[in-house]
Design brief:
- This protein is of the alpha/beta class.
- The protein has two domains: 2-147, 2-Layer Sandwich (Nucleotidyltransferase, domain 5), CATH 3.30.420.40; 198-386, Nucleotidyltransferase, domain 5 (2-Layer Sandwich), CATH 3.30.420.
- It contains 15 helices and 14 strands.
- Strand 13 (368-369) and strand 14 (378-381) form a beta hairpin.
- The longest helix is centred in the C-terminal third of the chain and has 25 residues, at 296-320.
- The protein is globular, with a radius of gyration of 22 Å.
- Bound molecules: adenosine-5'-diphosphate.
- Residues 210-212, 239, 283-285, 330-332, 335-336 line the site of adenosine-5'-diphosphate.
- Adenosine-5'-diphosphate binds next to helix 10 and helix 12.
């Protein structure tokens, strides 16, 4: 069976076609500027490429372009859309409704739309993606939705509740939902597989460090706590996001600068974090380059980022009363040997030891353990593969239809 994995944004649509017989990606691509003008970039596993500027007024038009790229021209991957067994969509917010992946029907689409308050930018775009897919391919290709929040549905109340008056949880469902769940799920399961460990009794900390970052405590193979909250703004500082703040900072800024809720949200989501502190960039590579040239604020931003990550890892060791393995993933987690070392060095007191020569060789795409044989905790890099998780869930659901 071949599965088309889709990640629909408001003006973009990322896709991968995966052959589930060997779980290999046959083709992948990106439609951009949907609703503006339109561009598609498409590539096959054997390096054939197709790029075109095509008018894409909506997601339906974008799916038509994907179909054309997949079944025709020099970079075609399949002979007909009939070869595709199902489409799997990535959905950011499943709220308290979806604790596992499900087959799409009208009720499911309405529920995803109904959760838009909790992820306005994402969920509305995902619904456009699902509807566009249905309009383009009809109902002959089943669709499945896989939620970023589902993996975190196992958190106990003590982890997911905020210490607000309880009626805010009852009235508005204000709680920690967590994000990047598909990634945390993939790398924690892969970690157990690589270390040949059972779920029961296991304690793993997964660090997904990219433009958006989150850390999850995984106990018995299930999410026990995670750093992102009601929205992906919570946790520690990211490329452009503040992470956790003293809430009084926000009321103080409102008083001083008279910002609206939207302006405050933009400040915390888009202008803060590594970008806000360094004044250089939200991209760690730029900030590392500036720091190497002596830029003091760039150095400070990187130090703060590392310090906050260390604190989260430490707090989850305490929360789980121990840890068997720590996993790094995401653009920063997979590439920055310095960051990994700085997190592990402060755990030396509890017997964490890393092999610098292995750590230094682990870069994007490489999977491996870089703790020493006698380290009390296994420390490793596992490149994430959210698309594969989506494809596997999709396959399982359509096979059991
Ligand atoms: P996203 O969260 O958007 O999926 P990624 O997981 O690709 O993004 O992570 C992007 C981040 O990874 C950026 O901050 C980028 O600077 C960082 N990154 C990528 N390559 C390297 C590298 N070689 N060294 C340090 N950071 C890197």
């Amino acid at each position: 069976m071949k599965i088309l994995v889709v990640n629909a944004g408001s003006s973009s649509l990322k896709y991968q076609l995966i052959d589930m017989t060997d779980e290999k990606v046959i083709a992948k691509g990106l439609c951009e500027r949907i609703g503006i003008d339109g561009k598609i970039s498409h590539k096959t596993f054997d390096g054939r490429e197709y790029e075109a500027q095509i008018d894409m007024p909506d997601h339906t038009a974008a799916f038509k372009c994907v179909e054309k790229a997949l079944i025709s021209g020099d970079a075609k991957a399949i002979d007909s859309m009939d070869e595709i067994g199902a489409v799997g969509h990535r959905i950011v917010q499943g709220g308290a409704i979806f604790d596992h992946s499900v087959l799409v029907n009208e009720q499911v689409v309405n529920d995803i739309e109904g959760l838009a308050d909790l992820a306005p930018l994402h969920n509305i775009a995902h619904v456009q993606g699902i509807r566009g897919c249905l309009e383009c391919f009809g109902d002959k290709i089943p669709q499945v939705v896989v939620f970023d929040t589902s993996f975190h549905a196992t958190m106990p109340e003590t982890s997911y509740l905020f210490a607000l008056p309880y009626e805010y949880y009852e009235k508005y469902k204000i709680r920690r939902y967590g994000f990047h769940g598909t990634s945390h799920r993939y790398v924690s399961a892969r970690c157990l597989e690589l270390l040949n460990m059972k779920k029961e009794g296991s304690k793993i900390i997964t660090c997904h460090l990219g433009n958006g970052s989150s850390i999850t405590a995984v106990k018995d193979g299930k999410c026990f706590d995670t750093s992102m909250g009601l929205t992906p703004l919570d946790g520690f500082m990211m490329g452009t996001r503040t992470g956790t703040l003293d809430p009084s900072v926000l009321t103080y800024i409102i008083e001083k600068e008279g910002l609206s809720a939207k302006e405050l949200s933009d400040l915390c989501n888009k202008k803060s974090g590594v970008l806000g502190v360094s004044g250089v960039s939200s991209d760690n590579r730029d900030v590392e380059a500036a720091a190497a040239e002596g830029n003091e604020r760039a150095k400070l931003a990187l130090e703060m980022q590392r310090y906050q990550i260390r604190k989260f890892v430490g707090s989850y060791i305490a929360a789980m009363n121990g840890v068997d393995a720590i996993v790094f993933t995401g653009g920063i987690g997979e590439n920055s040997a310095e960051l990994r070392k700085s997190v592990c060095d402060n755990l030396a007191f509890m017997g964490v030891k890393i092999d610098d020569s292995i750590n230094d060789t682990l870069r994007r795409g490489a999977e491996g353990v870089f703790s020493t044989e006698d380290s009390t905790v296994k420390v490793m890099v596992i490149p994430t593969n959210e698309e594969l998780v989506i494809a596997r869930d999709t396959k399982e659901i359509v096979e059991n239809m």
